[in-house]
Amino acid sequence: ALTNNTRRRVDKVFKRSIALDCVCYIIIGIAGYLTQPIDTPDLIIERTNIFSSDWVMIIGRIAVILTLFTKIAVNYNALRVSAVTLIGKDTKEMGKLLNFIITFTTLILTTLVCALYQSITDYISLLGSFCSVLIAFFFPCLVYVKGNEYPLKSWKNIVSIILAGILILIGFVSGYFTISRIINK
Question: pTM of the entire structure?
Answer without folding.
Answer: 0.46
